[in-house]
C-alpha cells in the first residue's frame, strides 16, 4: 500500500518571541521567511521558513486561551507538532478514524496559506501531535 503521507509539510516549533526566533533562523542559517500569518481561529501567529519543499513553522500565541499558550506554559518552547502533506485531507482523516486513532478535528478545517487541515491526538500517535495538510491549488 502506498503511504497517504506525501511530504513533510512543516515542523512546528512553539516560541515565546516570534521576531527573535525569526531573527535567529536568519542569522544562524541564512534563512528567509516566506510567509507570515495570523491564524485567528487558533490564536497564533506563524512564520514559515522554507527548507527544500517543506517549512519550519515558528509559532507563537496571540492570546492567553490559545492552545499554544497553554503548551508554552506547561512544556515550554520547542517542538509542537509535525505536519504531513496528504492529497485529500478528508479521505486521510477518515482512514485515521477508521483505524481507531483518536483525532482532535472530527472533520477537516481551514489552515493557514489556504490549506485544509486536521489534527490527530498525540495520545494515539506516540506523543507527537500530528497535522494532516492538504495544499489547495
Ligand atoms: Co501546523
Please give the count of helices: 3
- What summary fits the major beta sheet? 8 strands, mixed
What is the CA-atom radius of gyration, in angstroms? 15 Å
What is the percentage of strand-forming residues? 35-45%
Helix content: 10-25%
Report the top-level CATH class: Alpha Beta
Q: Given the helix and strand composition, which structural class is it?
A: alpha+beta
Mean pLDDT: 95
Secondary-structure element pattern, one letter each: EHEEEHEHEEE
Overall number of strands: 8
Description:
With 137 residues, this protein is of the alpha+beta class. The chain has one domain (5-134): Roll (2,3-Dihydroxybiphenyl 1,2-Dioxygenase, domain 1). Helices cover 23% and strands 37% of the residues. The chain contains three helices and eight strands, in the order βαβββαβαβββ. A hairpin with a 5-residue loop joins strand 6 (109-110) and strand 7 (116-120). The site of cobalt (II) ion has 6 residues, from strand 1 and strand 5.
Could you name the key traits of this structure?
137 residues, alpha+beta, 2,3-Dihydroxybiphenyl 1,2-Dioxygenase, domain 1, 8-stranded mixed sheet, binds cobalt (II) ion
